[in-house]
Design brief:
The protein is α+β, with helices and mostly antiparallel strands. It contains 13 helices and 22 strands. Strands 6-9-10-22-21-20-17-11 form an eight-stranded mixed β-sheet, with helices on both faces. The N terminus is likely disordered.
């Protein structure tokens, strides 16, 4: 189409973006490009086209017949003018103006899409959305999510660089190392029977960068783990990965806090306040979780003292007795619902669940109320703060299980969607160095990983009471989702071997599996520590999403497949043979 005026450059496909036009552009001749979002006919010779590009939508008035259907790619030239009185669209950024006297040039035709682009995402089957992800990404919501992700990445990079961190890329083909989750393996074509692993994290390499004297490293690292997928987990994920030399816990937490708060401000426009800090023990005692959601109350109550001398056999001799008050729920929970809560507690490993309804005059309605003394009843009401109409749930078991079961019930009954309400960040510190024991060997299992520094106050108990030893390890939690974790690392070779021995890793095995990592420590390793923030999870919450798939351009389904590309797919036998592999039926 020939431009009407030299003000439009013949070599330019557009003069403005659709969503950038405002009242100050009235009277200007513009050329726009994009997709036809909607077409509305007004008589034989008048049509309204909503033109969409990455910046937004603008209404165009076409006074001639043009066969431009939904999702056609077009170029439109016309004059910006004010919308007539009564037609302003307050819900649209360009709602005060329109393009008049529009002339349309079709740049590309389009088949009818498999679903309306402007249809709500939850009204379309997710498998269909992912199969046609390139169309799904045309949605305003998806465009906004990806821009929010870009803003987070940019803010984090700027924060890291302002704090003196240096960006370094680490390898994607690495040796297989035990880091907790199952690895993706890559067969070597050159050496049949040998494999690379795809990195679960840059953990070992970033520590070697500290040995190399880099002092402050960061990377927006791509990581891969072959684990079961869920709303907050994908095979491939991205994290802000950092490591720092000559630091303590406070230094690492301060650096990450600045980056995360900068990222939150970049997306929401508001900077959150200082991130509070609680110990792992306090988190378990009060919330029954090492990733506590602080947006709502319903804190757990320790009832050990209340029932310390009880005659009720289900409570007597328990390692811990945890209570949970559900305000005003007595009338809404009938026997069927209470039985379901009991079944839920049992499915989580509890022996059972005691429920108590508080009636008038502080009477307790429960199958077990007859076993409580008056003093125990009064102490129970005092400890929980329960009043008439409230429901009290009680779990008695060993300490860790009682906390976890009660904490899960707390989340089940009171937790709002992850993106709703205020953003409640919290640092959880002083995690246990070991969690549980191997069922076969009885040896302790590492809480985070085998390279966490034991708390200096607990070192003397390392061999004799390993389960009581704390680690200089810490997690960052937002609205009940773990955003990331980190620790101060062991930089002393002798201490590292002490920890390995507790885990059942001999010197020979350590040298074989970690020699490339441990040997450099013989040449002078600084005290160092680091952290990794899950960018997918952070962006999902800031963007108001419940699932990280909504903030990833091309994610996998929960089963691990990709409907768009068809992966994973079978490969030719000749390709397998080249790698020294074959499929055994």
């Amino acid at each position: 189409m020939t431009p009407r005026t030299p003000s439009i450059r013949p070599t330019s496909l557009r003069t403005h973006r659709c969503g950038d036009l405002r009242r100050e552009h009235i009277g200007q001749l513009v050329r726009l490009t994009g997709w036809v979002a909607r077409r509305r006919e007004h008589g034989e010779h008048l049509a309204f086209l909503d033109l969409r590009d990455a910046s937004g939508v603008v209404q165009c008035v076409v006074a001639e017949h043009i066969d431009a259907r939904s999702e056609y790619v077009v170029s439109i030239s016309g004059t910006v003018r004010a919308r007539p009185d009564g037609t302003i669209n307050a819900n649209l950024a360009t709602g005060e103006i329109e393009i008049g006297e529009a002339e349309v040039e079709i740049l590309g035709t389009a088949e009818p899409p498999p679903f309306p682009i402007d249809q709500r995402a939850d009204a379309v089957d997710e498998g269909l959305r992912l199969e046609y992800r390139y169309l799904d990404l045309r949605r305003e919501r998806m465009q906004r999510n990806l821009r929010a992700r870009a803003a987070v990445n940019s803010a984090m990079r700027a924060s890291m660089e302002s704090q003196g961190f240096v960006e370094v890329e680490t390898p994607l083909l690495v040796p297989s190392t035990p880091e907790g989750a199952r690895e993706f393996l890559v067969p070597s074509r050159k050496e049949h029977g040998a494999f690379y692993a795809l990195p679960q994290s840059p953990q070992l390499f970033k520590q070697l960068l500290m040995v190399a004297g880099l002092d402050r490293y960061y990377q927006l690292a791509r990581c891969l783990r072959d684990e079961d997928l869920r709303a907050d987990r994908q095979y491939e994920f991205t994290q802000l990965d950092i490591e720092m030399s000559f630091v303590g816990v406070d230094d690492v937490l301060a650096a990450i806090s600045d980056a995360v708060l900068d990222a939150a401000e970049a997306v929401t426009g508001t900077r959150p306040g200082e991130i509070r800090r609680i110990t792992w023990r306090e988190a378990m005692e009060r919330f029954g979780s090492d990733k506590p959601d602080l947006r709502f109350g319903m804190e757990l109550v320790d009832l050990g003292e209340v029932f310390s001398a009880t005659a009720f056999k289900a409570f007597a001799g328990s390692g811990a007795i945890k209570g949970l008050r559900v305000e005003g729920a007595a009338s809404t929970y009938g026997r069927n619902q209470l039985d379901k809560l009991t079944d839920r507690a049992k499915s989580l490993g509890a022996k059972g669940l005691v429920w108590i309804k508080v009636a008038a005059d502080a009477a307790l309605e429960s199958p077990v109320a007859k076993f409580f003394s008056d003093a125990e009843r009064d102490a129970l009401l005092d400890a929980t703060g329960a009043k008439e109409g409230d429901l009290v749930l009680i779990v008695a078991d060993e300490w860790h299980r009682a906390c976890e079961v009660a904490g899960t019930l707390r989340n089940d009954l009171g937790r709002p969607p992850v993106h709703e309400g205020p953003y409640e960040y919290v640092w959880v510190v002083d995690f246990p160095l070991f969690v549980g024991q191997d069922a076969t060997t009885g040896r302790p299992l590492p809480g985070h990983h085998a390279f966490c520094m034991p708390h200096p106050d607990d070192l003397e108990r390392l061999e004799d009471e390993p389960m009581s030893v704390r680690a200089l390890a810490y997690d960052l939690v937002l609205n009940g989702w773990e955003l990331g974790s980190g620790s101060i690392r062991i930089h002393d070779g002798a201490l590292q071997r002490r920890v390995f021995h507790l885990l059942g890793i001999s010197d020979e095995e350590a040298d074989r599996k970690f020699g490339f990592f441990l040997n450099p420590f013989r040449y002078g390793a600084p005290p160092h520590g680091g952290f990794a923030v899950g960018i997918d999870r952070l962006v999902a919450i800031l963007a108001g999403e419940e699932n990280i798939r909504e903030v990833i351009a091309f994610p996998k389904t929960q089963s691990g497949s990709d409907p768009m590309t068809g992966s994973p797919i079978a490969v030719e036998p000749s390709h397998l043979a080249e790698l020294g592999l074959k499929i055994i039926p």
